[in-house]
Amino acid sequence: KASPRVRKITASLIQHLHDFARENEITVDEWMAGLELMNEAGRMSDNKRNEGQLVCDIFGLESLVDEITYKLASDAQDEPTATAILGPFWRKDAPKRNMGDTIVFNIESNDWTLMHGQVTDYKTGKPIEGAELDVWHTAPNGLYEQQDPDQPDMNLRGRFTTGKDGKYNFYCLRPTSYPIPYDGPAGKILRALDRHPMRPAHIHFIITAPGYKPIVTQIFDRRDKYIENDAVFAVKDSLIVDFKPYQGDPKADFELPYDFKLATY
Ligand code: DHB
Ligand code: FE
Q: Closest ligand 1 atom, CA of 144?
């Protein structure tokens, strides 16, 4: 039995699609070209690629839905950390690591970063014990580990759990801007629109804690030239961060302090 909600939004989707075809007098040839893109995206949508998601994301749909869902977590102070889209490259069951560990393996870089901060209750400011940070980012070649046979499995991914003080710290890299996969339907659409495929350098997080609403988010490097021109429209002001040159730690070229603020249900 279809739920009332499913009935309602499906009817609305159909209505908008029909209006779209009518308003633009879509021809059979144009429809076939669109179908071909959809079918190709379907064929390419394995868990390393998620092409269907990529196509929706360059239309800004995932970012719009994120905004609609999390009106509250906006750019204001005194609010929970803002959310951002999940994107196609999260993997479940990233390895659990200990505080102070690295998520970087087999990579030469001058951009080693010590990221650290605290997970707190946004209302009381109290530290949250047992919060899990699930983190992932791309290698300097612009590839996530599952896209790149030269990276070890689960490279640049990890899960960290806070202790009593709510604090966390781990080593990662200062990421680079990189193109979303550009050799399939999403790339074809971007080219047809004279759009670039670049995303500003970012690090992904899912923050969960018992009793708190999970936060899916990304943080963005202020210095990145694509910060105002993200191919998938995910940047929010409060998620822009400053990497600081760091001395006094032979393992880190930069430090990145960042606190996460969660809301209870
Ligand atoms: C998308 C999101 C990402 O975080 C990314 O690295 C690539 C693509 C996306 O939303 O399509
Ligand atoms: Fe990403």
A: 6
